[in-house]
Amino acid sequence: MRFRDVRVTGEPWSIRCVVKDAHYARMFLLEHSEYASELAGAPQAIICESCADGRHQNWGTTLAPDDEDGFERFVFATLRPVAAS
C-alpha cells in the first residue's frame, strides 16, 4: 500500500503486510521522519514495525520515501531466517 502527500512524522509513505498464517503476521511501515528529513535537506522515511504486542519498533533505517525497492529488500532481509553459525 502506498500513500501520497505525507507531511507529518508517523504518517506512512508505504506499508508492507506479511501474513504467514493465523499466528504469524507482521506489518512494516515506511514512515515520514521530520528529523531525518531535516538532516538530509529532503524528505526522508524511516522503517518501523507495528508489533503484535502493540509496540512500535523503529528499525533505524532511513530511505527516500519513493525507494520502494529498498523497502522491499529490507523487509525480505528482515524476514529471512538467520543462518546458524
List keywords for this structure.
alpha+beta; globular; 85 residues; 2 helices; four-stranded antiparallel sheet
Structure description:
21% of the residues are buried. This protein is 22% helix and 39% strand. The chain has one domain (12-79). It is of the alpha+beta class. It has two helices and four strands.
Task: Compile the SSE list and pairings.
Layout: E1 12-21, E2 24-32, H1 34-40, E3 45-50, E4 56-63, H2 68-79
Q: How many β strands by DSSP? A: 4
The overall number of domains is 1
Helix content range of the residues, please? 10-25%
Assess the beta-strand content as a share of residues. 35-45%
Which structural class is indicated by helix and strand composition? alpha+beta
Assign an overall shape: globular
Separation of the first and last Cα atoms: 36 Å
On the 0 to 100 scale, the average pLDDT is 85
Strand order of the largest sheet: 1-2-3-4
